[in-house]
Specification:
about 400 residues, mainly alpha, globular
Length: about 400
């Protein structure tokens, strides 16, 4: 066991060092994390991360990333699910899902496979993208509320959609049931559990936290948040058969519904980079450069959808809501960045047989390109014309 986990620990250590080096070179830490994964992969000399352990590590990292996505990066983020935040998330998620589905159908894929690609393209960036915004002096986009609500709404739609697609995964004989009543039932179950998580966070979590504080039991107060989050995950799995990994989003959502709840897991903000590394390092370790030769047009189309269609749809939604051109561009820069959740959705789709592993590699390249591009562009945008986020 120790020998098999060694390459993973090495990869995480390299991720810390290379992430710092990437920051010093004015590149996103994501670049360092990906390089660390490649260094413990089978296509570079040295220790190789075991494929089974890598798959398990991806699931752990995916759950942690989705948990943080559910928190919304800001207190009471669910209160921002209105107006531009809601309209923008709906427009961006539906638009990119349709584009991904259309491209998949053009390749002869099943409807579920095309939608899985679309959800991967539409998923929000929740850890490294906010870091890029902060480095450009735009952290107010999140604390101001619009983008925080946008990211939560987008994550919610993608998680609910993937809950439905989970029911269409191929069976042991490789047969796919296709979209139908089972998929709709699973998606509706995911939506109901999301509403229940918000109600739990709004009405129950603050009282439980206040009760443990009155008892003067700091250990119990610290233990309560992860217990509640795990309880929501298990309840989703047992009641409506939501996969545990996707249920982690609902666990985070419960803490985004109140200031007290979000404050209880505020410590997790210091571990966001660890969450991202736990996901990205094993995903990158499974990257196979030779696989890109067999994906055809996807190696061009998928990056174009991420780099062009994502921000374009976000900008159009902001302009339609009445924002001036400059603030709309800044909001598009925040919502237009692909990130860790795209990798989560792609990895989950590969795990259940909805996407080939080659598409996960293409999504990884697209996410890296998005992070590098926006890291460069945002600095120039802010330097050229600093601006707030006001309606035009």
């Amino acid at each position: 066991m120790s020998s098999s986990i060694g390459p993973l620990l090495l990869g995480l250590g390299l991720a810390a060092l290379l992430g710092v080096a990437a920051g010093a070179a004015r590149l996103p830490p994501l670049v360092g994390y990906v390089l660390a994964g490649l260094l413990v992969g089978p296509h570079t000399p040295g220790p190789v991360l075991d494929a089974v352990l890598a798959a398990e590590a991806v699931m752990v990292g995916a759950a942690l990333v989705l948990f943080w996505c559910g928190t919304g990066e800001a207190p009471v983020a669910v209160d921002r699910l209105r107006g531009l935040a809601l309209a923008g998330a709906i427009g961006q998620t539906i638009g990119l899902s349709i584009l991904g589905w259309s491209f998949g159908r053009s390749l002869g894929w099943d409807d579920a496979e095309g939608l899985a690609l679309g959800f991967a393209l539409a998923a929000p960036g929740v850890i490294l993208a906010p870091r890029i915004l902060a480095s450009a002096g735009l952290s107010g986009l999140l604390t101001g509320g619009v983008l925080a609500g946008w990211l939560v709404a987008s994550g919610l739609m993608v998680v609910v959609g993937m809950s439905g697609l989970w029911a269409t995964a191929p069976d042991a004989e490789g047969e796919m049931p296709g979209l139908g009543r089972a998929a709709l039932s699973s998606a509706l179950g995911g939506a109901v559990m999301a509403g229940a998580a918000v109600m739990l966070g709004r009405w129950v979590v603050p009282g439980l936290l206040a009760g443990t504080e009155r008892l003067g039991a700091p250990d119990l107060t610290a233990l309560l948040p992860p217990v509640i989050a795990l309880g929501v995950m298990v309840a989703g799995a047992l009641l409506v058969e939501i996969p545990l990994v996707l249920g982690a989003f609902l666990g985070g959502l419960a803490f985004a519904a109140s200031v007290a709840g979000w404050g209880a897991i505020r410590w997790a903000a210091t571990l966001r980079g660890v969450f991202a590394a736990l996901l990205i390092v094993p995903v990158a370790a499974q990257f196979d450069p030779a696989s890109l030769q067999g994906v055809g047009l996807a190696v061009v189309v998928v990056p174009l959808l991420v780099l062009v269609a994502r921000p374009a749809i976000a900008w159009a939604a902001a302009r339609f809501a009445g924002y001036a051109a400059r603030p709309a561009r800044l909001l598009a820069a925040g919502a237009g960045q692909a990130g860790e959740v795209s990798l989560v959705i792609a990895a989950l789709a590969v795990t259940v047989g909805l996407l080939p592993a080659e598409l996960r590699d293409v999504v990884l390249l697209s996410v890296v390109a998005s992070a590098v591009l926006w890291g460069l562009l945002l600095g120039h945008m802010v330097a050229a014309e600093p601006a707030g986020i006001e309606r035009g």
